[in-house]
Design a protein that fits this description.
This protein has 120 residues and is an all-alpha fold. The protein is 74% helix and 0% strand. The protein has a single domain (9-113), classed as Four Helix Bundle (Hemerythrin (Met), subunit A) (Up-down Bundle). The protein has helices at 9-15, 20-33, 37-46, 50-67, 70-84, 89-113. Helix 2 packs across helix 6 and helix 3 packs antiparallel against helix 4 (50-67). The longest helix is centred in the last third of the chain and has 25 residues, at 89-113. The radius of gyration is 15 Å and the shape is elongated.
């Protein structure tokens, strides 16, 4: 079983109907594809593309909820609201910084604990 800080494995498993192998596949995809999420959001914001940043955050919010990363899901929801309400850049940056630290820790924890992929 996984014991990764910030990950509610029971909730993630519930979402996939208790199928451990499916959950592991989703977690691997998350760790691979979402590792650079904060950087992508920052690039969109630096380019003045708030809509792209909102889209990235919305996508992240969905996958975070799916895998059972409740605190990060809440962080993403708050960041999405801040972007949609056009809060000052320093508030958005502050929220993004907090989310980024927890997100990076989750990615690191997953990479350390996920079982090796079967050869194939």
């Amino acid at each position: 079983m996984l014991d990764v800080q910030g990950l509610d494995v029971a909730k993630g498993l519930h979402f996939v109907g208790g199928r451990w192998s499916t959950y592991i596949i989703i977690l691997r995809m998350f760790a691979e594809q979402q590792a650079g999420m904060s950087g992508e959001i920052r690039r969109a914001l630096a380019a003045g593309d708030r809509e792209a940043a909102m889209h990235l955050v919305h996508s992240a919010k969905g996958i975070l909820g799916t895998i059972g990363a409740e605190r990060l899901h809440e962080d993403a929801s708050a960041l999405y609201r801040a972007l949609s309400e056009r809060l000052p850049p320093q508030e958005i940056e502050s929220q993004l910084n907090g989310m980024e630290a927890r997100h990076d820790a989750l990615i690191h924890g997953l990479r350390a604990q996920l079982p090796a992929e079967p050869a194939g």
